[in-house]
Amino acid sequence: MFKVVNKRYLANNIWLVDVEAPNVAKSCLPGQFVIVRLDDKAERVPLTICDYDREKETITLVYQSVGASTKRMEKEDDNGYKDVVGPLGQPSELCLMPKEELAKEKILFMAGGVGTAPVYPQVKWLKENGYEADVIVGARTKDLLILEEEMKQWATNLYIATDDGSYGFKGNVNDCLKDLLANHGKEYTRVVAIGPMIMMKFVCLTTKELGIPTIVSMNPIMVDGTGMCGACRLSVGDKIKFACVDGPEFDGHLINFDEAMNRQRMYKTEEGRKILKVQE
Ligand code: NAD
Hints:
- The chain is α/β, with parallel strands linked by helices.
- The protein has 11 helices and 15 strands.
- A 7-stranded mixed sheet has the order 10-9-8-7-11-12-15, with helices on both faces. The chain has a 6-stranded antiparallel sheet with strand order 1-2-5-4-3-6.
- Helix 2 packs parallel to helix 11.
- It binds nicotinamide-adenine-dinucleotide.
- The site of nicotinamide-adenine-dinucleotide has 22 residues, from strand 8, helix 7 and helix 8.
């Protein structure tokens, strides 16, 4: 078993867990993910690595208990996980960039809701390696905001945006970006947007118009995580890519978001049936 050594409630059914996973903790980089299973019969759940401690040999995962499997995890993962497979996927493009190129970038991260978790390790990695990055964290309302204090430690400037204006800027992350550019003299050469697909779609429409290269992290339905099943396929420009092995990060201006969102919706009914079974 992979032991859960710390578990903390963040907000809105969102949980943070530190899991002992020495091999993953030793080699993972920001942007990569793991697939966890509670037991032999459990569903495989892909989760982006939110943080890692190479000395303590732990990784930090954040999940929202919305589906049948995550609802089970919420109740049962104090006992640990049967499997933690990873690190899977490609590390963030920023971590692999030549240093002199990265030093020239003016980076803005745009995190939406639970998407704040995968943004966090990238911002931390940049700061630890001597690079600056601004961050916008968006939430529907103040109570749903996660990882604000943690993010403050590493972000050069942290901007909070709430849809209802209960805290920070009033509006979504896209409105906040437009405000920073128009009214606060900000300039960015690269945006990294991670959150709901609809958010990433609209951020990309804006940044395409502005000519700012934009990286997104895609989380389509995934099964094996090793490129075998093809469930997580995406149209990226004129190519078919698998989020699990080619991503999860891609050039957001090349993603066909409408197709990706349609594919995600196809499984909604099945998921609903499964939740009812778990609740029975
Ligand atoms: P949410 O719906 O509460 O939205 C969070 C924020 O995203 C909003 O406050 C707003 O600032 C922004 N946003 C949402 N819709 C937007 C739009 N149309 N235009 C501009 N900005 C918009 O988010 P949530 O409920 O926390 O998100 C859950 C979703 O995020 C799930 O679908 C989950 O799968 C996805 N997610 C994605 C990743 C990833 O790696 N891409 C990681 C974790 C979660």
